[in-house]
Amino acid sequence: MSGRMDGRHLEENQKQDEEEEEKDQVMSEVHLGCPPHTSGPHISRFTISTPPADYVTCLMTNRLAGTRKLARMKMGIFWCLDVEVWKAALVLADFVLHKIFTSFEFDGVVSLELGAGTGLVGILLAQVAKTVFLTDHSNEILENCARNVQLNSGVLNYRAAIHVRELDWMNSWPPTVHTGNLASKEWYSWSSSEVEEVQEASVLVAADVIYSDDLTDAFFTILERLMSLGQEKVLYLAMEKRYNFSLDDLEVVANGYSRFRSYLKDDGECEGVQLGSFPFVGKCMDLALIPQYVGEYNRGNNVELWQIKYAGRKT
Q1: Helix H segments across the chain?
Q2: pTM more than 0.90
Q3: Is residue 110 predicted with pLDDT exceeding 50?
Q4: φ, ψ for residue 145 (rounded to 5)?
Q5: Residues 170, 176, 180: CA angle, nearest 5 degrees
């Protein structure tokens, strides 16, 4: 009897150790999407609540017919980091919803989402925008994003034309344009008219794209090219600072955050200051002023939302 008990305790301790090891490997406080220990396609549902009736003015009556009180977005998720719905994306979704509910700012705009992943933020923008481009890299992610657009077409009232397109930050802008009949591997390629339309976009969005120095450099390289062309643009970027011990710094740091800040001049410090090596001006927004419309997540204390504008000379 004691031998059986010892064996049971051994198994329980081993299981507990494995669970603790998994916790140590988690990059974020929240990792929404697939349940643990699953693989393959998975459908997650996010409940979106709207403001009380007395909060919504007549401005709201002509939008989202039938979905203002409650909308359930079906997001198809694969067990892959690049297509998970991270906390920063949900914060950015709250921001976009707040703008939709309280202003006309996004009405009729052309918008580009960088590193779209599941496409959640761009799909929400498509309710009021004119055109939305959802961009990312690799066919698997793009196929998943296109599936999410289709999954939600019966739930949300898309007003925008939605294009899922490949955009590799390691390559220069504009991307290669394909003409004629596209092979299946080129379904997410750009047309010349789409490239021209993106250059006239006024709203860019991105979530959880800052987590390494190399990727941050690539992101700001293509961002500078995009924002220096065509119409004046604003980027809304949400990010989660993930703290890890750095062997280089011999201390706990948020990967990619210092590099991210090196590209920005704080908006409050710009008056009368020569921008010089700071081609971008950034303002960290107060999340306390943005209600939480998306359920099933906790914002925590490490998510930031930035409004970023290009301060360099347009070409």
Answers
A1: 2-25, 87-102, 120-125, 139-151, 192-199, 213-227, 257-262
A2: no
A3: yes
A4: -65, -45
A5: 150
